[in-house]
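User: Structure please.
Assistant: Input sequence and predicted structure:
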Amino acid sequence: MRRAAACWAAVHLAFPAPAGRLPLLCLGLGAADPLPGRAWYFVDLPAADEASASIEVGFAREAVEPLLPPAVEAWAHALLRAGWAVAARPVAAPALLAPALFPGGRPPAAYPLLLARGSHRALALLGALAARGLSAAPEALVAAELAATYRALIPRRAARAAALRWHATWLDAVAPAGAVPAPLAPAGAVLDDATGWTAVADATAALEDAALRRGLARAAVRAARAMAADEGCDAATARAALVARLAHVQVVRLWGPDAPAALAREAALARALAAREAPRGTEALASPADGQIVAGRAAAGPRRGSAVKAT
């Protein structure tokens, strides 16, 4: 596990929407490691208007460094010169790590490092998709990434199935009324179709990391203790919330922030995967906290065009 950074900062990069997203991601971030020697992640931010959008690039920095270290500043200026970004704004507190978004009001130390791995996987996949003329991931690939995230972070099948049901319940609670996803292929077929894509992602950044998984689990226990007095959150629910947010961010990366009926489609995928994972005879068991939505006391959950509210 990489040594925890003293702190995390971010730069918000604006680009012309929607056509400018893939060039910025695939060429500005994915062509080569833009910040060698640093852990970093990206996430889509809510669009201010229809003409522009932005991403957050969070990066590790030491407390003695300036808010925008010279290497990060030089990279941001290079993006502006190339035209892949139209504005760059440093921020001291990354939106994706806002305390209100986490059970117990504190982002786990492992969380941004897992976001970084997901970012590298997404960039590799988006680059491979772009090479085939695709601007967004097919459903099979999104399902495979959901499954890979949950397998890596929740090893036991019964707990994984319950967490996936929690994920679906969470999204059901915040999806726009009337959003109906297209019928899904059987979960087994969905995963079988994406084996090659998963190999592409694993070759770039494997999700399996025992130290990060244990760190997330310990953070869930601490969060549950902090919340038990007033919200009745247990460790399984806290872990489900943390993993759901990580997985949801990955879905937004792969589909883009404006995919139609995205929350309902993602919920359907999570529910299908839960049914596949559930040990025989346990399909009717309740999810953590009976699906209680406690993934951040002040967070209402995902919002159309936003991965920040969901994470």
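The CA atoms of residues 125 and 131 lie 10 Å apart.
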